[in-house]
Amino acid sequence: MPLLEIKNLHAEVDGRKILNGLDLTVEKGSVHAIMGPNGSGKSTLAHVLAGKDGYQVTEGSVRLDGEDLLAIEPDERAAKGLFLAFQYPLEIPGVATMTFLRTAINAQRKKRGEAELLVPDFMRRVREAAKHLGIDQDMLRRGVNVGFSGGEKKRNEVLQMALLEPRLCVLDETDSGLDIDALKVVAEGVNRLRSPERAFVVITHYQRLLDHIVPDIVHVLSRGRIVRTGGKELALELEARGYAQYQEEMA
Amino acid sequence: MTVPAAVPTRTAAEEQLAANWQQAKSGLPGPVLLRATAFERFAAAGLPHRRVEEWKYTDLRALMRDAKPLADAPDAAARERARSAGAALASIEARRIVLVDGAFMPDLSDLSGLEAGLTIGSLAQALAQGDEAVVSQLGTIVPSDDVALALNTAFMGDGVVIRVAPGVSLARPIGLVFFNSGARPASVFTRSLAVIGKGARAMLLESHEGAASAADQINTALELKVDDDAHVDHVKLTAAGAGALHVSTLMAAIGARARFNEFLFTSGAAVVRNQLFVRFDGEGTVAGIRGASLLKGREHADTTLVADHIGRACTSREIFKSVLDGESRSVFQGRITVAPKAQKTDAKMAAHALLLSEDAEADSKPELEIYADDVQCGHGATTGALDDDLLFYLKARGIPAKEAEALLIQAFIGEAVEGIEHAGLRDALMDQVAAWLKARE
After folding, report:
1. What is the DSSP pairing of strand B174-180 with strand B95-100?
2. Minimum Cα–Cα distance from A76: chain B residue
């Protein structure tokens, strides 16, 4: 059984059709890249998967390990192993990063019927994961993402990903707003999490992120459907030729 | 045709207050003239109503269907129940002073080993004995002709008199527990006086609580004098009981180079009105006046504040937060006045309301009244719901909706609470917030 199976997905926002019969199958252990021009539905796909309000699914199905993902709440999807790394991580003044991380981890564990993580265990895990990502204690003490640079916010997303140990990670334009050094740190953080049990869907406009997080399969999204699928070389082709041909194909 | 002059019709509550006065006045301790003058002030004006600007959003005439009889002296059962009161601040290890149904209870209070320079006594006793120092000071620290205060002055039964001598630093906070037993619905009028000497350090905590079902009418007032160079924290918790009507007046005069921190925490009472008249008399004082209200059901909480800058170069920060669920309503009326000589005043006031329900209402009326030309003053007010995008971010990390809301509400209130210097007190208040949120689930 595939880890993620999307069939004929149609979705709209404010009555505007964005996804038009999208099919995607992701096996565990694999890294899929979804590339496409602006407005092709990349971020909509990410938000529909995570369950954001305001996205209306009108047709089709999404299954995670065979379970209907669309029938459950965003927090339940997270507990089942779905993680969305946000394109624009939000600042939450007054909620300390440590409190946020511990609340999230324990909420997920509780839903899975596991015991709460003891404080010393939690602290040790955070310290270890933070060290790899160059996140210092001061950042952890501050409110979630408050005063963080763009790069720090993305590193914080990867920190959360590392601690929550999801099975399916959806990265929504993780490269946006990052310089090359920050991009490398984030990509290394993601690569460290690659495992035979875990899969990634990397959504990006540009090929450069895929130099660092090398995909197994590349899909081209245009006007709400996947119009082409290939190996990692497809990303290079898109970089060289642009998306024009796919937009024309649809027209 | 001549229009007949409007003859004010007394409401049932006003009639009952007058009857209470006739019955009680000869038995009340102390300054007969002061009381009689105050009652006349009330009799002429009646209960404050919506056409009185200061009471525009809290129409006491409409809210008070009746006036309860004055509270009896507490019986043994009431005194026993008072032993468990004040739990919210138990972790602070304050010196516990207990009043039950408005009466000072020396036997329930910790009056042992008072620090040198600290005196704590009963107002009723001071008035009965004609204590000139108390009598001459009452009503003079920050004079006000407010009608609710006039009622307090007319009927004040008991309260606490606290004096801290110059230079004395109190090792322990003083924790005043005002417990209403709810034996039968009653009116309770308490008046307290605290004089903190030059360079002294004191922390006063007030906790007002009552039986959940009690329909008491509480009118409490504190006159607080903070001398030059003193450092005073005053915190008032109000959880007076779901049916209670609670009116409170703080009159505080702050000297030069002082530090003054005020915090009001309100959760649980049908109607709460906290009015604060704070005057900065001397130069270079730094003050914070803050508060948080957590309201549900049909609760109503009004904070009316006047921060009066007379001395020059004082800094004051006012921040009030309210969280409103159900059909509750919060009112914030805040006015900063800056006298002509109060140059270099730095005063900023903010009121923020978080609406958790479609039916809740928040009214904010911040005002600045500035007569000096070299000042920095500002005010702001916001009202809104929880941010959907933030909620989604938390939910996407596996945090259930209610828990995500609770985190954001705690963060919202936390911004006001973090202004409190005492870490244990901050924690105690945030525990109260957590308990309120838990009860909401």
Report:
1. parallel
2. B398
